[in-house]
Amino acid sequence: xxxxxxxxxxxxxxxxxxxxxxxxxxxxxxxxxxxxxxxxxxxxxxxxxxxxxxxxxxxxxxxxxxxxxxxxxxxxxxxxxxxxxxxxxxxxxxxxxxxxxxxxxxxxxxxxxxxxxxxxxxxxxxxxxxxxxxxxxxxxxxxxxxxxxxxxxxxxxxxxxxxxxxxxxxxxxxxxxxxxxxxxxxxxxxxxxxxxxxxxxxxxxxxxxxxxxxxxxxxxxxxxxxxxxxxxxxxxxxxxxxxxxxxxxxxxxxxxxxxxxxxxxxxxxxxxxxxxxxxxxxxxxxxxxxxxxxxxxxxxxxxxxxxxxxxxxxxxxxxxxxxxxxxxxxxxxxxxxxxxxxxxxxxxxxxx
Length: 352
Hints:
352 residues
């Protein structure tokens, strides 16, 4: 991977970008990250993530059952689009990991692939489809609905900037915010890549960086797919959502402060149009988000020492997917009803 990386970064059609001015700050994290780019660690990471996302459809459905949030979870197939069988077989290592996790695809080639998804480019000759999946029709609408359920159960949603934790004898007694002190004896830190400075206040330096990701929504789209498709050649996912077709992908390293990258968005746009040549829309909406990436590719889930502060962040690209399972685990820890799921791999104290 180290040998290939320079070529990837120099190729304007490869979905990896670097803000070179940020590289000196990135380098220490990158060295730790790259140390895990081997077979043994990849298998370890895959096994760990399967714990969080392997049953994500069931976890989300159980969480929202009999609530207003249930309408946002939609059953579907999930396909990977390849140029041909050779391209699919070149991905054999990754498919081997998926099979070990219990995911076996249905293969459709040639005319069968085009009949199943007629809006795909003729250049796509094979679809590897996983059944019994689901997606969220609108992540923002879903989270808003979940907040409504929380409030209906007696919870309160407060928007504030967290400044610090208050600890007495290494036990949390309050959270300091820009709206004053909030007394508590338990707290959950689930603020993505922004969790790093808060963990430093607890004496832990977490090697975590933002993988800047992009998406474009083609509003009121026609000519797109009928179900979520990962286009392997472009490494992006096209999902038909409530607002339109969302195409999401690209990895860019450049920190939290820089604005969006036009070349990254232009690449995503080119790839989407190549995969769906008849795509049309009333409007295009661009977006940049920050994926929280620990150097060992596993989230931090658990208690920091015995402080009463619990972590639930660092899920890379799968925060929403793994959120329901993570929430169930952390809720059990907070309520002194620990899960029987082995969460040792996610221990935040591994970075102590």
